[in-house]
């Protein structure tokens, strides 16, 4: 996309020109650094809290900010251009940030990824990152609360409808797919709002055992690529 940006009191540059791309990259870099600083401050504050619920709420707030910062970091370093990034690459970086918070709740289980590279706009990556963070934390919090050991896996696939499908699945104690209580929580509202923002649909399935959250989202056609498995 070609456009103009005004700098230095009236001088215009093409956004797709070298200086325009540099300015855009520098902007993403600074936004990512600022958001990371906010997330770090929230993390430091959470360590001072004695109340477990309050501490986890702050930790989750920090993860949401990190999910958004991660998009800007990828836009800064990507070679795909200013208006797209690789979803698999972004989710892998997000999973690495989620692991320290989630692994203790999995009782020696694993947080895994099974992804295909897929180019998406930044707003799609941001929304899917928020959904993934919420779903993974919820799975770690509730699926293995009875002490059993298990995994949580994030997958990205083509859905056969011209779009993509992201799933987050656990093998825990499960939940009713019609459970209204979970739909009223803050995390569920974040998931619904993030999905609405990109025209995605949310559904839950029985994973036998456990629960699978599936997000069908629109995406521009691109070449199918080999599966990426995230090293443990």
Automatic annotation (TrEMBL):
The superkingdom listed in its UniProt entry is Bacteria
> Keyword set for this entry?
ATP-binding, Kinase, Nucleotide-binding, Phosphoprotein, Transferase
In Pfam terms, one family for this protein is HisKA_2
Q: What range(s) does the Histidine kinase/HSP90-like ATPase domain occupy?
A: 123-221
Q: Which reaction does it catalyse?
A: ATP + protein L-histidine = ADP + protein N-phospho-L-histidine
Indicate whether Transferase appears among the record's keywords. yes
Which Gene3D superfamilies does the entry link to? Histidine kinase-like ATPase, C-terminal domain
Cite the EC number. Answer: 2.7.13.3
Q: Example GO molecular function term?
A: ATP binding
Q: What class of enzyme is it?
A: transferase
UniProt keyword 4Fe-4S present: no
What SUPFAM superfamilies is this protein classified in?
ATPase domain of HSP90 chaperone/DNA topoisomerase II/histidine kinase
Supply the PANTHER family for this chain: ETHYLENE RESPONSE SENSOR PROTEIN, TWO-COMPONENT SYSTEM SENSOR PROTEIN
According to UniProt, the name of this protein is: histidine kinase
């Amino acid at each position: 996309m070609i456009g103009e940006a005004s700098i230095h009191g009236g001088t215009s540059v093409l956004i797709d020109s070298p200086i325009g791309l540099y300015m855009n990259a520098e902007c993403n870099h600074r936004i990512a650094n600022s958001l990371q600083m906010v997330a770090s401050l929230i993390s430091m504050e959470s360590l001072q809290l004695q109340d477990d619920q309050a501490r986890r709420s702050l930790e989750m707030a920090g993860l949401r900010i990190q999910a958004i910062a991660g998009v800007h970091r990828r836009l800064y370093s990507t070679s795909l251009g200013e208006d797209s990034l690789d979803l698999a690459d972004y989710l892998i970086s997000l999973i690495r940030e989620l692991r320290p918070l989630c692994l203790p709740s999995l009782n020696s289980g694993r947080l895994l990824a099974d992804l295909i590279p897929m180019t998406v706009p930044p707003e799609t990556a941001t929304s899917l990152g928020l959904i993934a963070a919420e779903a993974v934390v919820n799975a770690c919090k509730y699926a293995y609360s009875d002490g059993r050991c298990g995994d949580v896996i994030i997958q990205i696939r083509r859905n056969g409808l011209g779009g993509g499908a992201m799933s987050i699945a656990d093998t825990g104690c499960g939940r009713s797919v019609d459970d209204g209580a979970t739909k009223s929580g803050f995390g569920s509202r974040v998931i619904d709002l993030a999905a609405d923002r990109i025209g995605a649909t949310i559904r839950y399935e029985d994973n036998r055992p456990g629960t699978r959250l599936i997000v069908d989202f629109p995406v521009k056609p691109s070449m199918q690529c080999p599966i990426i498995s995230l090293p443990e």
